[in-house]
Amino acid sequence: MPDISLTTVVVLCLAALAAGWVDAVVGGGGLLLLPALLLGLPNSAAAGHALGTNKAVAIVGTTGAAVTYARKAPVDVRLATRIGLAALAGSTCGALLATGMSTEVLKPVVMVVLVAVGAFVIFRPAFGTAPSAVPASPRRVWSAIGFAGLGIGFYDGLIGPGTGTFLVLALTAILHLDLVTASATAKIVNCCTNAGALAMFAWQGQVYWQLAALMAVFNLAGGMVGAHTALKRGAGFVRVVLLTVVCALVVKMAYEQWVA
């Protein structure tokens, strides 16, 4: 574990708790967790250690939320796993390309997409409030595997922020799921992508395991509480959190693009 103060450890654990809750409800917990690690770890620590430790923490909370959802929400685990395996392949390809490609040119495009998504959710209040009465056709299933799996998985490996939020939106739009079921499905997909990324970081020795284990306890608690909250409060509540996270993503990426 790196040489950091007790106060910093407490702050990181609280950030992990909040990130687990946000991530379980609608995705985007990395908006809290990764910046906290980048600020909290000593300057001598490489950025890769923050990324690796972030994945080690996040996979625990994501798994806890996925299990909670799977027990109480109507999740098609088989379909979610198929999308997750595609996302794993996509994120691996994205990570391989990320080393030799500037992602700065893609960030403005992502911001435009996020603004469009936010406007769509605002002006379509019925979006994701109720599931379709018709089962998803094979064409829509393959579209979900291709776009939500390979496409967003690729984005996760190449850039990263907001992957869980994009998954929720894509699954809602393509498979006509309600937002709660889409959040549940997204958690299973996230487990697959996090596992692949964690394996790579662990192989490179870029995980502070002791710190990650401590933070993971709080992230797990936040994830399970977040899943219960989403199940109890319903799609309307998830929609509000979704819009909040989308706005936070736009502000964060705009700041990194034009201010930082």
What does this protein structure show overall?
By secondary structure, the chain is mainly alpha-helical. The protein is built from ten helices and no strands. The chain has helices spanning 6-26, 30-40, 47-72, 77-98, 107-123, 138-158, 163-175, 179-203, 209-233, 235-258. Helix 1 packs across helix 8, helix 2 packs antiparallel against helix 3 (47-72) and helix 5 packs antiparallel against helix 10. The longest helix has 26 residues, at 47-72. The radius of gyration is 17 Å and the shape is globular. It starts with 5 loop residues before the first helix and ends with a helix.
Poorly predicted parts: none
Structural class by sheet pairing and helices:
mainly alpha
Strand content: under 5%
Largest sheet: none
Q: Count of DSSP helices?
A: 10
Mean pLDDT: 82
In short:
The chain contains ten helices and no strands.
Can you lay out the helices and strands and say which pair or pack?
Layout: H1 6-26, H2 30-40, H3 47-72, H4 77-98, H5 107-123, H6 138-158, H7 163-175, H8 179-203, H9 209-233, H10 235-258
Helix pairs in contact: 1-2, 1-3, 1-8, 1-9, 2-3, 3-8, 3-9, 4-6, 4-8, 5-10, 6-7, 7-8
